[in-house]
Amino acid sequence: MTTPAIDSTHRPIAPRLDGGTLSWPWLIAGALFVLFWQYGQPLAKWAFDYPRAWQVPAQRWISNAMKWLLDSASFGLFTFTDLTRFIARLIDLPYQFALSLLSTGFLSGQGSSAVEVLPPLSWVAVIVIVTLMGYHAGGRKLALLVAVCFGFLAVFGQWNSSMVTLASILVAAPLGVAGGLLLGILAYRYPRFERALTPLLDLMQTIPVFAYLVPILFMFGFGPTAAVVATLIYAMPPMTRITVLALRSVPSEILDLGKMIGCTRRQMTWRILVPSAKDSLMVGVNQVIMLSLNMVIIASMIGAGGLGFDVLAALRRLDIGAGLEAGMAIVALAVALDRLSQAYAIKAGSEGAAVRTGNFLQRHPYTFAALAIVIVTGVVGLAVPALQHYPESLEVSTGGFFDEVVRWINVNFFDTLEGLKNLVLLNVLVPLKRLLGGFPWLGVTLLLAFAGWRLGGIRLAALVGALCLLIAATGQWEKATITVYLCGISVIFASLIGIPIGIACAERTRLWRWMQVVIDTLQTLPSFVYLMPAVMLFRVGDFTALIAIVAYAVAPAIRYTVLGLQKVDPRLIEAGQAMGCTPWQVLTKIKLKLALPEIMLGLNQTIMFALSMLVITALVGTRDLGQEVYIALTKADTGRGLVAGLAVAFIAIIADRLIAAGAARAKQRLGLV
Amino acid sequence: MFSRNRMTTTALGALALCATLSLTPAVAQDSTDPIKLTLHDWTGQLITTQIMGEVLKKAGNNVEYVQADYLAQFAGLESGDLHVAMEMWETTGRDAMDAATATGKVENFGATGMKAKEEWWYPEYMKEKCPGLPNWEALKDEKCAEAFSTAETAPKGRYLGGPVTWGGFDDERVEALDLPFEVIHAGTDAALFAELESAYQRQAPILLWIYAPHWSTAKYKGEWVEFPEYTKECYTDPAWGSNPDMAYDCGKPFGEIWKVGWVGVKDKWPDAYNAIKAFTIDNDEMGQMITKVDLDGKKIEDVVAEWMGANEPRWSQWIKK
């Protein structure tokens, strides 16, 4: 990137207040663009199709650089590959421990000649421990929820795979939290480090994982370790960002206190800053866990096994029911871990320094109860196998039920659905695709740069223009327009569905609680699970991709709308009502206007979510950047994958920066800043 | 009680270990490190791999199964993190395999004996609407093509090809043979079979890329389109075949299914290396086993054990020193 990205809290805001609404400069720019687009082709053909001769051979450069890094890069005493392999072995240690504890048991020897020295935790023990944790953190209700979630895993025969997945989460999440925390603290302390880190974080979050999977496999070896590394890259950035924000918002009184009592720098960080920012930090922990679970499918493709593998294998033999069961097991794990971590966050926030009395046992009743359970079930489990392994005869399965449901819909409603699909496809999708495909790259670049200038000033304009130019210069323009078309239309649909639902949920607590479960499910259920039934009903192609993207991207649209509406100052609403506003007027003139910045943020997240689905939709035959990344993965072409991945990241960054600048302006206009 | 049980387990383990060791002749110099065989996500491959694994276990080798993606696994095979991949299809994996063997770190362990067949395929009930099938020339008939059409492709027929990454030259084939069809690419083979399942449930028209050995040919009744038989010249020489100006005016090639692996296997586990090279199985055997698992709902382990029981003379030849 050419211009250092600016942190959102310190974004310079142009003093003009007219931007955002239609005004003369916008109209003129728009008219120029249309003129150029309609009549420019004969004059400047190069502005429509980027000439091949000008292309930057970035793919080759990246591939060569990677080759050098893997084959010949050396630090004198050891090579680069030695270093990465060493890191891989370090990560492997805790992973093997967690895996032994939860799934395989402790073994001596390797492979098929291994002998079990100690059995793994029995299913009873694991359920009791998590239930105790639930009770400890959030009382009886949470204990019940967690027990039900884990019980689901055992009853539906998903126990073994779930424990393999849980083991990798138990390694990836703490590493992600620790790494994110350290980077965040460094960024907080050294502004220069932060400036260098921010664009890197943007890239880590927006480049599709498939794009850097190949180099990771070469560096860290094939297997769960590489999966953990990939998960870390993807799940760490939010933790880093939240850490910086949380540390910044520690009240200055507390900092002053720390200085007065003469804290050293280290004490200041670990004794003052981190504990006072604990609440916000726990939000980061929660994010890391959720994002790690999002990676389960991809991790299973590179040897992590577990639930992701079950989902893939089930859908390969078109067993929709089995795929759904494995997918729901991922959701159950996600919900249990999420609610547990949230409860601990609240508990950590409310709990003061309680006076602990009594002996060791009285002070740690939960730990002891858990230990006792482990030992008792372990010993009894040797005699009673049902206690160690959940008996197969008691397992429940939906069997062919869901296959039958899909078959029924398919046989009875296919023609109706096909008609609906053709309506949308022929009237909306195809024309839009043609329209976007015909735009000149130069015109789009200039128009976006203009938008950047109007919304955020000259630096934003330069950034946006440079990123657009890079997409064109690496030969990705055509695929990028298809990407923008597919994601754009999905974002519009997701907003049209999500924002009204958000409005409906904002004031109805009970409805909102149910909706949260739905959103969590949509976010953690691997999209592969519903992608295959969607293919059965709508065939392969853009429409099926659209459904998958909307289903995933609708979640943030709902969430942020609710958040924004709930934050509106009730006094303003009362004032509106006192002035005789109808409920409709209160909603449109007061609430929605004041919630606009949050809704814009929701839009931003909707776009990010939509972009992150691209690689998945490549699996139903789209022809966008996601497909390019996927092809590169299957051909193990590092350069090609990373170039396409970077193009996706650039689109994301352009959208993010423009929307953030727009939201900042809106806030300013509304007097919220 | 706890400690006593522990001891018995350990003792049993040690006994088992001695038993396996004594079975292995002293001349064996195979490493005791586990040989890592990769498992992918389709049944046939799981069966092939587990048969190989069980045979190697009988020979006293230490075996470990690792789940890996079909194409992503090459990164692991090159670095020696993974050792053996039992099914690499000529038709879909050739490019990746060639790229990997070119590095000198991956070796082709020879053919499995199974032949991959890939071709255009239609369900039997489509014969009524398009009576000339399976002869490919029937597809040239406009009425026949229209029977296969959808709103997006009409009046042309719709042919659902494999993922772009599979290659297959279907776009070229359609042009060379002048077929009134449009090629739509599925993104994955799961999507491919989802469409087939959907169409078959409704007895609706569909023409798509099917490969064998696979459960679909056992589950759905249908036939392959018969194109002019593939020859090497057809793909390279435009003059060959019915269209004098274009190549690809013929069917798809049949291909071997190869065994590939890390180049170091030969030195580290010489006996296992020979056994892996000796392994063969044929399409019919495999087709039956796949059907047992995917359609009759048997467990893979049981089907493999059944095969092991029935074919002892065969596999003991592979591991003969």
Strand content of chain B: 15-25%
Give the overall average pLDDT of chain A.
Answer: 83
Q: Largest interface here, residues on each chain? A: A-B, 61 and 66 residues
Computed CA radius of gyration of chain A, to the nearest angstrom: 27 Å
- Percent of residues in beta strands of chain A: under 5%
Number of helices of chain A: 30
Helix percentage range of chain A: over 70%
How far do the termini of chain A sit from each other? 29 Å
Order of helices and strands of chain B: HEHEHEHEHHEHEHEHEHEHHHHH
Tell me the major beta sheet of chain B.
5 strands, antiparallel
If you had to describe this structure to a student in words, what would you say it looks like?
The complex is a heterodimer of chains A (673) and B (321). By secondary structure, chain A is mainly alpha-helical. Chain A has a domain at 96-105 and 117-352 and 359-397: Orthogonal Bundle (MetI-like fold), CATH 1.10.3720. Chain A has 30 helices and 2 strands. Chain A has helices spanning 24-39, 58-71, 80-104, 123-155, 159-189, 191-206, 209-220, 224-248, 252-260, 265-276, 278-294, 296-301, 307-316, 320-350, 360-363, 365-383, 385-388, 401-438, 441-456, 458-473, 477-506, 509-524, 527-538, 542-567, 570-578, 583-594, 596-612, 614-617, 625-634, 638-670; strands at residues 106-108, 115-118. A two-stranded antiparallel sheet of chain A has the order 1-2. In chain A, helix 7 packs parallel to helix 29 and helix 21 crosses helix 24. The longest helix of chain A has 38 residues, at 401-438. The model of chain A is unreliable at 1-20 (pLDDT under 50). Chain B has 2 domains: 31-115 and 255-318, D-Maltodextrin-Binding Protein, domain 2 (3-Layer(aba) Sandwich); 117-236, D-Maltodextrin-Binding Protein, domain 2 (3-Layer(aba) Sandwich), CATH 3.40.190. The longest helix of chain B is centred in the N-terminal third of the chain and has 22 residues, at 2-23. In chain B, the strands form 3 sheets. In chain B, strands 3, 4, 7, 8 and 9 form a 5-stranded antiparallel sheet that branches. A two-stranded parallel sheet of chain B has the order 1-2. A two-stranded parallel sheet of chain B has the order 5-6. Chain B is globular, with a radius of gyration of 23 Å. With 321 residues, chain B is an alpha/beta fold. Chains A and B meet through strand 2, helix 7, helix 13, helix 18 and helix 23 of A and helix 1, helix 2, strand 2, helix 3 and helix 4 of B.
